[in-house]
Amino acid sequence: MARWLATRYGVLFLLLTLAIVTFLDRIAIASAGPRIQQDLRISPEMWGWILGAFVLSYALFEIPTGALGDRLGHHKVLTRIVVWWSAFTCLTGAAFSFPQLLTTRFLFGMGEAGAYPNISGVLGHWFPAKERARTQGYIWAASRFGGALAPLLVVPLQVHIGWRWTFVLFSVAGLMWATAWRRFYCDPAPLADTETPLHAGIPWRELLRRGQLWLIVVMYFCQAFGSWFYFGWFPVYLVKGAGFSKSQMGIFAALPSLWARQAAWPEDFYATILWRDSD
Question: How far is CA 139 from CA 43, 60, 210, in A?
Fold first, then answer.
């Protein structure tokens, strides 16, 4: 097993697991939202600030942390990212007031920022250019699977151990991943793909003059605005707006992400991930 994890498909398996954990941890607070608001007496307006704190800090630190991975090494920065956000996932369960929870979620977003740019950097080192689009598809499909898991796990867990200990349990999953990553990851040999070498620097002036870049920015802004509004408020709406019980909410909140995962998952994924690296 340890030898297989040191191959490129073992690395892909670890990154898929990470993608699941990232969305599991960031969506968990939305699934626990109705109970947290009740326990901490948080109004809908205050809850909006809590949800927005993560998105704001995540956006501010995404590019700097991605650039840090290019400079210091993606595997090192990924380890720091996971340990940081796991710590603040745990501290989410220790919040007893609106200011504490707001600060914790802002720092949580700061820590998790850069995860996907650094995942892309690792894929760039381990996979040739012709395989990178496919592996990126696996990563994004896995992240949506994590989003679907969040309500399915949070709702029953908070019934049995409370929402505070649920966040502690989720933080352990991140720390376990970081331990496995540090133990099994090794720097890859140079790729034989010399046609599209990894970039040595970012030509900012040239990029900012390209209209295609700004079209992509507008597109992704609209996509992210809608999806993050949905991620944060849909569980609350199901309970407070549609009249679902908290147990029913978990099932229905998971369905859209499950369908998104099914649509995005390539048919040959299982054959790909289970084959040993033949290189």
Answer: 35, 22, 27
Which residue, 150, 53, 30, is CA-closest to 100? 53
Helix (H) or strand (E) holding 194: none
Q: At what angle do helices 129-160 and 162-184 cross, to 10 degrees?
A: 150
Burial class (CB in 10 A: 0-12, 13-18, 19+), 118: buried
Give one word for 203, left, alpha or beta, with left for phi > 0 and alpha for psi -120 to 50.
beta
- 71-96 average pLDDT score: 93
Q: Which residues contact 126 (CB under 8 A, 6 or more apart)?
A: 8, 11, 12, 188, 191
Residues listed for the chain: 279
Alpha-carbon distances of 234 from 34, 92, 102, rounded to whole Å: 11, 20, 20
Q: Which two tokens stand for residue 1?
A: 């097993």
> Which residues have CB under 8 Å from 123's CB, separation 6+?
12, 15, 132, 135, 136, 139
Rounded to a whole number of angstroms, the distance between the first and last alpha carbons of the chain is: 17
Q: How confident is the model at residue 237 (pLDDT cuts 50, 70, 90)?
A: confident
User: What is residue 276's predicted lDDT score, i.e. its pLDDT?
Assistant: 41
3-state secondary structure (DSSP) of residue 119: helix
Query: Which whole-number Å values give the CA distances from 1 to 7, 68, 123, 247, in the listed order?
Result: 10, 31, 20, 38
Taking 70 as the threshold, does the pLDDT of residue 197 lie above it?
A: no
Percent of the chain with pLDDT over 70: 85
Task: Look at residues 242, 255, 31, 34 and name the one whose alpha carbon lies nearest to residue 155.
Answer: 31
pLDDT at 95 over 80: yes
Q: Taking the domain 2-187+208-274, which CATH number applies?
A: 1.20.1250.20
State residue 229's pLDDT score: 83
